[in-house]
Amino acid sequence: MRLKGKVAIITGAGSGIGKATAELFRSEGATVVGADLHGTDFECDAGDEVQVEALVAHTVRDHGRLDIFFANAGVSGGFDGLFDQDAAAWTEILRINLIGPFLAIKYAAPAMKASGGGSIICTASVAGLRAGAGGAAYSASKAGVINLVKVAATQLIGANIRVNAICPGLIETGMTEFIFDRAREKGQEDRIGHLNPLKRGGQPIEIANAALFLASDESSYVNGQKIVVDGGLSASHPFNHQSYGRTSA
Predict the structure, then answer these.
(1) Number of domains comprising the chain
(2) Is the pLDDT of residue 224 over 50?
(3) % of the chain residues with pLDDT over 70
(4) Contacts of residue 121, Cβ cutoff 8 Å, sequence gap at least 6
(5) What is the arithmetic mean of pLDDT over 174-182?
(6) For the whole model, what pTM was predicted?
(7) 26-54 in b/e burial notation, b at 16+ Cβ within 10 A?
(8) Does 191 score more than 80 pLDDT?
(9) Alpha-carbon distance 23 to 208, whole Å?
(10) How confident is the model at residue 239 (pLDDT cuts 50, 70, 90)?
(11) What value does the CA radius of gyration of the chain take, rounded to a whole number of Å?
């Protein structure tokens, strides 16, 4: 019961990482307000300022406090190249993926300060670390999230509010479902995640476990950081992967 007595908001809670995290947080004793466009406790567009403000106000009004905000909602925007998207596509991707976490911080922080502190967690991506893991706009938005948590952590000095990011690798969610389905249809399931040392894709619960750590008091001295959960994908530049114990002829 690592989150007993805590009140948490999770955006993008209708599926994938958000849904897994909501279930895990509840099992650890938290009161969770799951938010998404539909099918959750509170319908909310995570990139809309009025709706995010209302989400926080609703949570504090109904539950008396706010301790955790997991700004997880996001979109991939496809894998188009830098010259294949227009400004409207970029604007929408940045609105949800980057402005969304900004709004979470803006409205969650005052509520958390009133309760004595809290933890804000934002979903970034390995695509925000270097090129080659996502579309241009998506990668730029997630790089922005990584820097946003650093800025927020420093601007919340003295508030006892920690702000951190999680950078998932290839995780099987609705956003990546087509990758996994295509590999299975071709009988190439063993190729999923073959570029990382664990040689597999990840599951939403593996990101939820990282979020639980950052939400709990176990991470009480972790602030302004990016936690990478990618099977080791970002540990190296691309190279010719071989299984442990095998050598080239």
Answers:
(1) 1
(2) yes
(3) 88
(4) 68, 69, 70, 71, 72, 163, 164, 165, 166, 211, 214, 215
(5) 62
(6) 0.91
(7) eebebbbbbbbeeebbbebbbbbeeebee
(8) no
(9) 9
(10) low
(11) 18
Tell me whether residue 156 is in a domain: yes
Place of tokens 């997991």: 70
- Choose the weakest-confidence range: 39-53, 67-81, 172-186: 172-186
Q: Which of 59-68, 153-162, 196-205, 211-220 has the lowest mean pLDDT?
A: 196-205
CB half-sphere exposure, 152, CA atoms < 13 A: 31
Residue 191 — φ and ψ, nearest 5°? -90, -10
Q: What is the pLDDT of residue 249?
A: 43
Q: Is residue 25 part of a domain?
A: yes
At 8, is the secondary structure helix, strand, or coil? strand
Q: Is residue 126 situated within a structural domain?
A: yes
> In whole angstroms, what separates CA 196 from the centre of its chain?
20
CATH number, domain at 46?
Answer: 3.40.50.720
Query: Based on the number of CB atoms within 10 Å of its own CB, is 235 exposed (0-12), middle (13-18) or buried (19 or more)?
Result: exposed
Instruction: Give pLDDT, residue 248.
Output: 47
**Position 245 in a domain:** no
**Domain of 115, in residue numbers:** 7-172+203-230
Q: Let me know if 138 is a catalytic residue.
A: yes
The side-by-side arrangement of strands in the sheet containing 68-71 is 42-43, 31-36, 7-11, 68-71, 118-123, 161-168, 226-229
Torsion angle of C-alpha atoms 237, 243, 244, 247, degrees rounded to 10? -90
Please name the residues in contact with 199: beta carbons below 8 A apart, sequence gap of 6 or more: 193, 231, 241, 243
One of 107, 138, 221, 244 is an active-site residue; which one?
A: 138
Strand partners, 31: 7
Average of per-residue pLDDT across 206-228 = 98
